[in-house]
Specification:
The protein is mainly α. It has eight helices and no strands. It has a single domain (3-172), classed as dinb family like domain (Four Helix Bundle (Hemerythrin (Met), subunit A)). Helices cover 61% and strands 0% of the residues. It is globular.
Length: 175
């Protein structure tokens, strides 16, 4: 197995896992918060897709799918490339109105496909290229950033599954 196949496998697991997490949920369920200052399943899934889309687009030097493919319209949100959830207040997270699970999963699949396309375009040497981000020391590399993006997605997917467990108890997951 090549390195890019390994990373692609990690990204490919996200739609399958989150499809199970969101299976059968209503729009009300997607908006449910365990506490008023907690994130909902819908917000968590949207945020993990947005950060993946934004960061991969930045690495590629291309426009985000959010804008390029008008995903913002399907989410009834502005075409703001910085609208990814980082820094959202509890009030902003609570006000988030997710679309249905099909739109969330379709956007996720589009972001995953683009991430895999980007991975296939890289050589092993490209992974060691340092990013011009002096706020971080040592400077991150492309490879470190890709792992960070995947890690963030997996963490938020797990959080969404946990919130589903809080919403419905242990029996929600069917193996």
């Amino acid at each position: 197995m090549e390195w890019h196949d390994l990373l692609a496998d990690g990204f490919d697991r996200l739609p399958e896992f989150l499809g199970k997490v969101m299976d059968g949920l209503s729009e009300e369920d997607l908006r449910w918060q365990p506490r008023p200052d907690s994130n909902s399943i819908g917000w968590l899934v949207w945020h993990l897709i947005r950060q993946q889309d934004a960061q991969i687009a930045a690495l590629m030097g291309e426009e985000q799918l959010w804008i390029k493919k008008s995903w913002h319209v399907k989410f009834n949100r502005p075409a703001d490339p910085n609208d990814i959830g980082f820094g959202h207040t509890p009030e902003q997270a609570a006000a988030f109105e997710p679309p249905d699970t099909e739109i969330l999963l379709d956007y996720l699949k589009a972001a995953v496909n683009r991430s895999k396309q980007y991975l296939r375009s890289l050589s092993k040497d490209d992974l060691d290229h340092e990013l011009d981000e002096p706020q971080y020391q040592p400077l991150p590399t492309v490879g470190v950033r890709i792992v960070s993006i995947l890690d963030d997605c997996v963490l938020h997917a797990g959080q969404a599954a946990y919130v589903r467990g809080l919403l419905q108890g242990k029996g929600w997951q069917k193996y």
